[in-house]
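Researcher: Re-running this chain for the archive, since the previous output was lost when a drive failed. Same request as before.
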Amino acid sequence: MQTSPTDGRVNGKTLKAPATSNRSQKATVIPGTKEKAGKHLGFYTEFATTEKEAVLMKAGISFVSIDGARNNLETEIKDWNFDGIRQQTFNSWNKALGKITVTGGSEEEKKIFYTALYHTMIDPRNFSDADGKYIGGDGKVHAVKNFTKRTIFSGWDVFRSQMPLQSIINPRVVNDMVNSLVTLADESGNQYLERWEFLNAYSGCMIGNPAVSVMADAWAKGIRGFDISKGYAFAKNSVEKFGNGSKGYSTGGLSVSLTLEYAYFDWCLGKLAGALGKKDDAKKYLVRGANYKNVFDTAKAWFRPRNDDGSWQPWPEQGRMQQGYGTIESSPYQQGWFVPHDVPGMVALMGGKEKVLEDLTVFFDKVPQNMMWNDYYNHANEPVHHVPFLFNRLGAPWLTQKWTREICARAYHNSVEGLVGNEDVGQMSAWYVLAASGLHPVCPGSTRYEITSPVFDNISIALDPAYAKGKQFTISARNNSSANRYIQRAWLNGKPYAHCYINHADITAGGTLVLEMGNQPAKNWGIK
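Model: Regenerated structure tokens:
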């Protein structure tokens, strides 16, 4: 059946039905929706079809203009070959997901892994048109030159696992995201980095200065295709605008969460300043990184919120277990472990290694079997995502190995309720991809990754030649199984390897990390 061409253009969208096709089709556009001006018009259409007829429709979307939508459509979908586009999409995703190949593990675990990997590649998404144009932070049309303008930066979530994962498998995306945040700060006139960017605008959602962490981490790992002069200035403005101030701690209802997180982001800026040769700034902000100590009450042996006059807020009946007591989406018990940049200092405050190990053991042992939202290790939310890897820093790496395998098995499923918490724009899944591969950072901004027990026997990561010297990095786990989850010995590129951590440069150099697994902890490995 041949039909007349119909164009519906609504609110920056171009929709077309084909003039001719080898498929039977008929499209009807509701009167009055063809051309309108204004906001929130939406689009609605009906297709008058009979049984077994097929309808083809394609849409072009632009945040810039109708012409941009039309050009996007004509550039990206030139013809009406539905099967061809479907195959093209399949090939594109297959190539993207092929950046990591795994063998071993169960079929269910592979489905969980590649579903997670897929989730990590949805955002931050391309915000610009096919010709590079986008609406800037000033509401005007701009055009990208040397990067892809990206959007949807759930900063408070993704700085922990998602961006570190992308720094290995998609460093261009990290470079794009930093560029996108820097250009937003520049174009908007705000001159500070947004913590939760949405459609090239500021939402102000959540807390802290996560973009500073992402920038510092990128720079430390050699991802540097952005204007560092502006980037550093905006990062500095960020920590000065949102920080612990002259008191050295934050007060009010989020005193603990704010103080600890601002201290970490100050540390990140200090590390970036040092890398850039800004010695005075490096000293200043690294010192400010120790401000987490200012909300530690030695009388209670834990972190506690403070008032503007310096006094402590009343200690609740539940003590550090009280949800929301100086914290956001957590309790002091959960948030209090967030001193990723100074674990030795944190441990000293808390009473020493043995006491901390005992406390962390309880923290994990009391988690419910299903790992749903709880008062202990609450994998359903981000503040604790680094905590399983603290055992590596405490000289007990076998406990990191034990608990990451437990979390992978109990908190992730191939089902409708496959995650114990919000995906949070790739963060929840990125944690799994890294941990199941045997790697995860404690402290983004540092180039160190903790080594843990891989879910799979073999994990091969394809490296980007623009950012890596090597072509591929492989982690091979010999004699691996759900029972044999403990690392006995290790070799890096054929040489014995005694550390429970590895540097980003060792990964990007390419090569193979071999782990020999067993069913009992090897308490002499990884403690150096």
